[in-house]
Amino acid sequence: MPLDPAPRHFHRLLLLHEQPTLAGVSGILITTLGLLVLLQPDLLSTELKIKAVVLRKGVVYGIIGAILFSFSFPLDKITISKPSGLVLAAGMSTAVGLTTLLYSLVTSSGQRANPHLLIKEKTLIFLIITIFAGTVLVSQALLYAPVANAASVKRLWSLWAVILGGKFLHESHIKEKIIATVIMALGIFLLSV
User: 3-state DSSP call for residue 67?
Assistant: First the structure.
C-alpha cells in the first residue's frame, strides 16, 4: 500500500537513526498522489467523492494494514542483521502463518468463498515457492541497502498486482491503474535517491 512510506520513514528515524532525505519525502508525496490516481477510476465511473472511496472497508483495512506493516521493515532489518537473522526471520514467518491460519479458522464463517477462485494444489505450491523466494530476497535486500530503498523497491508489487488482477480477476480500468502505478514508481525512484 502506498501510504506506508511516511510511517516507515518515522520508524527508520526512531529505530535505526536513518535520516530521510528531501527526495525521500518528495517520493512519499508522489507515491500518495499515485494512490489517489489509482482510486480515480472508481471516482470517475461511479461519481463518488474521494471520501466515499477512501472510507470503503477494503481501502480502510489496506491503509491500517500498510501503517502496521510499515513497522516490519525497520524491525526486519534489526532482526536480519543479527547473527541468527535467518532463523529469527523463519520463526517470525512461521508464527505469522500460524496466527493467520488460526484467525482464518475462527472467522471463516464471515468470509465469502468464490468458487471460480479456488486454489488448486499446483497453484498453492507455486504460491508457497514464490512467497518464500520473495521473503528470502527481501531479507537479503535489507542486509545490503537502507530500509527505505529495500522497502521502496518491494512496493513495485503494485504494478504486478494491477496487471495480474486484470488478467486473472478481470478487474476494470487496468490502463488507468497502470498509469497510477507508474506515478507510484516515480515516487519509489525518488525514495531510493
Answer: helix
CB atoms near residue 57 (< 10 Å): 7
Return per-residue pLDDT of the chain as tens, 193 residues: 444 455 555 555 555 566 666 776 677 677 777 776 676 665 555 555 666 666 778 778 877 887 777 777 677 667 666 666 667 767 777 888 888 878 777 776 555 555 555 667 787 788 888 888 887 787 777 777 666 566 666 666 777 778 877 777 777 777 877 877 777 777 767 666 5
The answer to whether residues 181 and 38 touch, using CB atoms and an 8 Å cutoff, is yes
Residue 38, all three cell numbers: 489509482
Q: What's the CA gap between 54 and 61, in Å, rounded? A: 10
Q: Are 35 and 180 in contact (CB under 8 A)?
A: yes
Nearest-angstrom CA–CA distance, 134 and 27: 24
pTM here is: 0.50
Residue 98: DSSP 8-state = H
Every domain of the chain and the residues it spans: 5-102+118-192
Distance CA 16, CA 3 (A): 20
Report helix, strand or coil for 167: helix
30-39 burial: b if 16+ Cβ within 10 Å, else e: bbbbbbebbb
